């Protein structure tokens, strides 16, 4: 049983009814709940809840009496009941009230009475329907009718605790793929709850893309893999074409390979199907096929083509015809990732070749563009040998070449070489620091009768830590030995320092 409606008196403060000279009383009737009030002409109110009845003006009100009759709303049958009157000076029967011009106190020539109705029964719901959403993946929409207006409703899916529905006569939800049940109860405008409807059984099919090409791909023949939990077959659509059967279902999945796609944007859709039921929101994937390699361009930075110069440090700036990355190599040491603005330091006095190529988002690698030049001397050192008596002493000049990616704590080298090693030299390499290979830490290794390029790959099989140092000493009898110290730095490219060791001494000095 619902809580009885509160009795209220509709005070029409804005209405200042001036009683006629021959009249003493104006009667204003209001109602709480849903019903009708019938009185004198012009004093009848239809079935509109909680509303005012038109004011009743008496004429020659000398002991004139007006009788008002209250009738509860008849639909739904048995729901509404008349409870009583408020402000009635004379109740002559259960549902009748009499007012006379001289009955009781007069308030500025106006009297107010209220007919009170109460609803005692909850609503009955009917015609519950289910529809799959065509815009929300695994979405379901339910709607229903009622035998009286509703203020709200409460829903339950799969017998979960009831929660407020998204609307008084409809509900939307997103559920998992599978078989489900739905039920609902309504509350009328008096707050009376009805009973739950019977279960409405429904099921949702879903389709998942397991494997797709990259969002930008150079594959003209991509393969799609897709799966479903309940579906027994699949239908696919390519570009703007309609759906048609595709793939052979094995387990919960199937695949389809497209062929000979043109460069440009493409769209693939797939939906699971089981007899007449289909996934109402197909899996949808759009991507771009790009098979055209990008073009790299070397800017005006760095040496001119074929230049002969006494500079052992160069910076190169370059660009690409497409968004993507770059790969560089120096003197044929192998391409490695790089960025525009790369600086090469400690270049040996010899011919050099720098190459860069662009890589686009699809993985296409463009042709390399190159710059060739010759370094013939170093600033502040000059090519002149150190004199000892009347004998010229050879000064060994080598290059420590590398490609590396620096992070905050570690640096990963892809290439590390000693280049331009003179004939019959001895190359000694040591490593100091926590990141050094265990077998080479401290003692390092020595290579005798070295010449040309010596690989230090065994030192860079794993990332080195910030602060680690690799020291390379290249020497030969009666020559000024070259010492290269490579220091790993946090988030910066490694630093290379160059020193010399004159014959007969052991301590490196500035060259």
Radius of gyration: 47 Å
Q: How many distinct folded domains? A: 5
Determine the N-to-C terminus distance.
103 Å
- Give the overall shape: elongated
How many DSSP-defined strands?
A: 43
Sheet of most strands: 8 strands, mixed
Low-confidence stretches: 1-24, 45-50, 57-62, 103-108, 378-391
- The average pLDDT is 84
Structural class: mainly beta
* Residues in helices, as a percent range: under 10%
Strand percent estimate: over 45%
Please tally the helical runs, counting DSSP H or I stretches of 4 or more residues.
0
Based on the structure, what is the oligomeric state of the protein chains? single chain
Provide structural commentary.
- The protein is built from no helices and 43 strands.
- By secondary structure, the protein is mainly beta.
- The chain folds into 5 domains: about 90 residues, Immunoglobulin-like; about 80 residues, Immunoglobulins (Immunoglobulin-like), CATH 2.60.40; about 80 residues, Sandwich (Immunoglobulin-like), CATH 2.60.40.10; about 80 residues, Immunoglobulin-like (Sandwich), CATH 2.60.40; about 110 residues.
- The protein is elongated.
- The termini are far apart.
- The N terminus is likely disordered.
């Amino acid at each position: 049983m619902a809580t009885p409606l509160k009795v209220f008196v509709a005070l029409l403060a804005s209405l200042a009814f001036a009683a006629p000279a021959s009249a003493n009383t104006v009667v204003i009737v209001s109602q709480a709940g849903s019903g009708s009030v019938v009185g004198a002409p012009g004093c009848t109110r239809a079935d509109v809840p909680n509303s005012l009845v038109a004011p009743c003006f008496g004429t020659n009100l000398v002991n004139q009496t007006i009788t008002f009759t209250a009738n509860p709303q008849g639909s739904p049958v048995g729901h509404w009941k008349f409870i009583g009157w408020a402000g009635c000076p004379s109740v002559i029967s259960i549902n009748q009230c009499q007012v006379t011009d001289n009955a009781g106190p007069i308030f500025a020539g106006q009297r107010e009475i209220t007919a009170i109705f109460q609803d005692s029964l909850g609503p009955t719901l009917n015609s519950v329907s289910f529809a799959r959403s065509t815009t929300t993946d695994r979405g379901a929409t339910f709607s229903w009718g009622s035998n009286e207006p509703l203020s709200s409703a409460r829903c339950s899916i799969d017998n979960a605790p009831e929660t407020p529905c998204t609307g008084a006569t409809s509900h939307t939800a997103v559920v998992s793929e599978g078989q489900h049940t739905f039920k609902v109860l309504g509350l009328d405008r008096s707050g009376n709850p009805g009973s739950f409807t019977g279960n409405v059984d429904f099921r949702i099919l879903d389709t998942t893309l397991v494997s797709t090409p990259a969002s930008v791909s150079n594959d003209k023949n991509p393969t799609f893999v897709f799966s479903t939990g309940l579906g027994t077959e699949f239908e696919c659509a390519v570009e703007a074409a309609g759906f048609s059967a595709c793939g052979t279902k094995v387990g919960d999945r199937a695949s389809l390979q497209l062929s000979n796609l043109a460069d440009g944007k493409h769209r693939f859709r797939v939906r699971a199907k089981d007899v007449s039921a289909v996934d109402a929101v197909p899996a949808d994937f759009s991507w771009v096929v790009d098979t055209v390699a990008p073009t790299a361009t070397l800017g005006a930075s760095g040496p001119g083509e074929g230049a002969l110069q006494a500079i052992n440090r160069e910076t190169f700036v370059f660009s690409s015809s497409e968004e993507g990355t770059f790969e560089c190599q120096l003197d044929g040491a192998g391409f490695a990732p790089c960025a525009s603005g790369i600086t090469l330091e400690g270049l040996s006095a010899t011919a050099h070749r720098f190459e860069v190529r662009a890589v686009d988002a699809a993985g296409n690698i463009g042709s390399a563009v190159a710059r060739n030049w010759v370094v013939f001397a170093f600033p502040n050192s000059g090519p002149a040998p150190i004199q000892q008596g009347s004998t010229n002493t050879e000064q060994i000049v080598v290059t420590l070449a590398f490609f590396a990616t620096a992070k905050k704590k570690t640096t990963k080298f892809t290439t590390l070489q000693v280049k331009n090693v003179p004939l019959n030299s001895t190359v000694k390499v040591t490593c100091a620091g926590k990141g050094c290979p265990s077998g080479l830490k401290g003692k390092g290794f020595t290579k005798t009768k070295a010449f040309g390029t010596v690989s230090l790959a065994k030192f860079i099989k794993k990332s080195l830590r910030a602060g680690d140092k690799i020291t390379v000493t290249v020497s030969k009898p009666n020559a000024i030995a070259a010492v290269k110290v490579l220091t790993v730095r946090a988030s910066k490219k490694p630093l290379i320092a160059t020193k010399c060791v004159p014959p007969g001494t052991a301590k490196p000095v500035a060259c």
